């Protein structure tokens, strides 16, 4: 079989070399985008009178047939024809005869592949934005049910200060909101057409790049043809945004895994998202959360892989760029899957509010309340810290908590202490009094929930 580019060759490459260079095994994901791009290109050629309407119509009909066959999974591709572009061109010529060879007038695979990638990412980034918004929605609904659920807040994974469980969930909503914004912002740079940049330098044909861009729904065109075919920043940005998103999911998964353990028992995963052990009958493992945490690694890997591929490539197109695809496809599949599973996991988990609340009664996370109490009565905070530190030590030595220490002991430490300290020490009071902006006080949390719901509704 001769190559579509075989004219200047005297020898055909061997089959295994063909296979090594081929990308069809993975770039067939782009089949619909490639046909879509070709349809716009041929319409533009017709409008600019580079092809006659008769030729253009024949080509369009052929492309429509291929599109239908692609949707029905009826197209047969071959490594012989290297990639999705050459495979489709060959199939088109088989379908409609030599006029199919006119499709490639005024374009190159270099602008063609870049166009396909832009179309593909635009579609998927829009889907991912919807999924990140859905996740925020699920979280804020959960938060709404737990404004007054008292939860131990940690620093250094040591009990720090009690918080509202809703406040903890809303912290993640803020992260996912930033992720959503990053994806939205990146669309500006994805929504640009490289089509018509040719191999690197533009073309001698009187094409209209704005027209094909408009047909494809792109907001703008690349201004420099060399940049158009070399640029993979938009993919890097996607991988980078995805890595940050995965990092957030992974941190949350780490917490869910801890909270599901016998040691914490703060939540229980729904059976759908857990698995048993083949040997230990009692086990209920949080597999899905672990898997999402694990998959974070592969997304980071794809980011690093593409950064490394790009660092040494001179302008403009180099075959190295073919390595941009598998990581991008895999990242799309990975994050779409992770976001869907994760939202389901949150929606269905059981929150053990009693365990959370009672755990805050058996720790010293209310110690700051006492120090603040003394400070509000005029004692310098540093001195108050010292006094309360000694009281904590006294409790530890006597095997009790601050709530159990008699008033005499408090008054021996400072005559500023009065009976109302027991109310102040109650974790619920402690949480509710933290009403500074962005704090965990119930009013603040309720306001935050309203704000998130508003924002989600507006978009
Ligand atoms: N399969 C190639 C890729 O993915 C398409 C562009 C090929 N261009 C070329 N001049 N060899 O990068």
Automatic annotation (TrEMBL):
Keyword Magnesium: no
Pathway noted in the entry: Amino-acid biosynthesis; L-arginine biosynthesis; L-arginine from L-ornithine and carbamoyl phosphate: step 3/3
Reaction(s) catalysed (UniProt annotation): 2-(N(omega)-L-arginino)succinate = fumarate + L-arginine
Gene Ontology CC annotation, any one: cytosol
Species name: Priestia veravalensis
Protein name: Argininosuccinate lyase
InterPro entries named in the record: Arg_succ_lyase_C, Argininosuccinate_lyase, Fumarase/histidase_N, Fumarate_lyase_CS, Fumarate_lyase_fam, Fumarate_lyase_N, L-Aspartase-like
GO biological process, alphabetically ordered: L-arginine biosynthetic process via ornithine
